[in-house]
Specification:
Radius of gyration: 24 Å
Strand order of the largest sheet: 1-2
Largest sheet: 2 strands, antiparallel
Distance between the termini: 58 Å
Number of strands: 2
Shape: elongated
Helix content: 40-55%
Structural class: mainly alpha
Strand content: under 5%
Order of helices and strands: HHHHHHHHEEHHHHHH
Length: about 325
């Protein structure tokens, strides 16, 4: 049986009227219950709309009421976007802010609270497509080697834990949140299975293969961890036994990439990019890689093809029928 989400707390806005705050609370509840958006996306949308309402209140010199927001003009939206750009906010964040505002506007229209036409009149900011920067295969493997941490003043079980997490990021292409979200029962012992059931964005689950040597690294960590690891609890824990923060893994990678002479682009997410890139370079099918990564759209996965243009041309020359 699916878990029911607790209700979104009533939002209080010093910059807006109670009518608008109530509709914002109902909108966020709708997004979580009906659209099943992740908590992080909901938090970002709520923050973006709150920032817009705060700006409008200052811009107009008055509380933002529901009728006033529904009568929003394009010039007001442009002024808000310009203020965010002045704060050095990037194109992607601006695009997300506009998406959140449009979602709120559509909700108000569906609820019969007015049509915020100005939001659809604003063109989304241009965002340059950035290709991921994969880590070389040999270096990616070294991130999962506990011996690389032997010089650190940390307990051996923590070395083993970090090695196991990074091995999952590179070996199975997991997001860091997916790896740290694994329960102990989700990870088979070596020889007892070769797949993981992972919960990704939007609480969607997918099945991904896992290598036996990666499972062996996880088992090494479990065997040395001084804290209890119940079946229903997280398999990766922090130094005091609580949930492991992604920041700990990020800091570990920062230390290691310095020791390995790698650039700042060598992040935990780069291990996931490397997983996809190395599969593609060895003949992996793009749609299969899409399933492994948990991408909703193939277009998201296609950003990896830009890295391996040489191979794609070779496939074209080999496979395309000639007249």
């Amino acid at each position: 049986m699916a878990k029911s989400n607790p209700p979104v707390p009533q939002i209080e806005l010093a910059c807006a009227g109670e009518d608008l705050a109530l509709q914002m609370t109902r909108w966020l509840s709708h997004l979580r219950a009906e659209r099943r958006l992740s908590p992080k996306t909901l938090e970002a949308y709520a923050r973006d709309v709150r920032q817009c309402l705060t700006f409008l209140s200052q811009h107009w010199g008055a509380l933002v009421t529901l009728p006033r927001f529904a009568a929003l003009e394009a010039s007001d939206v442009r002024a808000f976007m310009a203020s965010r750009r002045a704060d050095d906010i990037g194109g992607r964040s601006l695009m997300r802010a506009l998406a959140g505002l449009r979602s709120f506007g559509r909700f108000l229209e569906q609820e019969g609270k007015g049509k915020v036409g100005a939001l659809s009149a604003i063109r989304a900011p241009k965002v340059g497509k950035s290709l991921p920067k994969p880590i070389q295969m040999a270096a990616a493997k070294r991130f999962a080697d506990a011996d690389e941490r032997a010089g650190e003043n940390r307990e051996p079980w923590i070395w083993a834990r970090d090695a196991a997490v990074m091995a999952l990021l590179y070996g199975s292409g997991l997001r860091i949140s997916e790896a740290l979200g694994l329960k102990r029962r989700d990870v088979p012992e070596p020889g007892a299975g070769d797949v993981l059931i992972v919960t990704g964005k939007g609480n969607k689950t997918r099945m991904v293969p896992v290598l036996q040597n990666v499972l062996a690294l996880v088992q090494d960590y479990v065997a040395t961890c001084p804290h209890p690891l119940p079946s229903e609890g997280p398999i990766f824990v922090g130094a005091r036994g609580g949930p492991l923060s992604p920041r700990i893994i990020q800091l570990t990678m920062e230390r290691l990439r310095g020791a390995l002479g790698l650039p700042d682009s060598a992040t935990p997410h780069a291990l996931r990019h490397s997983f996809a890139t190395h599969l593609l370079s060895r003949g992996g099918d793009l749609r299969a890689i899409q399933e492994l990564l948990g991408h909703a759209s193939l277009s998201t996965t296609q950003i990896y093809t830009g890295i391996d243009t040489e191979r794609l041309f070779e496939v074209y020359k080999t496979a395309h029928p000639r007249a």
